[in-house]
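Morning, I've got a small favour to ask if you have a moment. I've dropped the whole record in just underneath, so have a look.
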Amino acid sequence: MALPALLLFALFALVPMAIVIYLSFTRWDGLGSPAWAGADNWREALTSDVTRHALWLTVKLMVFSWIVQTPISLLLGVFVAGKQRYRALFAVFYFVPLLISTAAIAVIFKNLLDPNFGLGAALNLPVLGQDWLGDPQLAFYAVVFVITWQFVPFHTLLYQAGARQIPASLYEAASIDGAGRVAQFWHITLPQLRYTVVTSSTLMVVGSLTYFDLVFVLTGGGPGYATRILPLDMYITGFQSNEMGLASAISVVLVVAGLVVSLALVRFSGFSRMRSQQAGM
């Protein structure tokens, strides 16, 4: 039964990966035949200040994404899972970002954050009127904000599903013992959502390595190198500078970084020791 899946995995994952590894040892402009270059691309990729800066920005984006998105998603997920008034109406509006494509979101925020014609100029608010995407000191945090706006609803959905699986009897017993909402959250909700936290964090952290289209449309990696994360550095090197061999080496670095992060999460988060909370499963 597993053979078809293994064949598809080999065809669409292992074979392309093997080709990319081969190309990383060649010089190729995308046309003609690749020429063997030995370890030149790897030497350049590992010593390039631009690529190392892109790797640092990628790690920074990963950390900021997790720190900002996790508490917001957790609190919203628990709230939406409850029985508060207008909860359903709030959820409808809140999940709108899940229905919009990444490119459309980038175009919308690019216009909203425009210092001359955006939201700040329309409302005459100096804070919003800053050149968020044109200032090297602000552009990265503007990207983090837009990514948060886009992906928090998805992770909220995970926490909502997890919160609804918590037995109501636990809260009833806690209420009888006099525990308030805050105490119930810390001693019941949060421990019961530990597996959801691990799952959401894994998707969030590993997904941070694949951000490309939103940053590409929003800033193009600029201003300067302020938002040139590793996937964008790979694209610019390969398809704008026509250095496919070097871009392949960068892509392998990206894959290795993803594997290291994934293995670290599995090792230190207890993901491999997870057991079903359903009886008999």
Notes: The chain has a mean pLDDT of 86. The first strand starts at residue 26 and ends at 27. The longest helix spans residues 49-81.
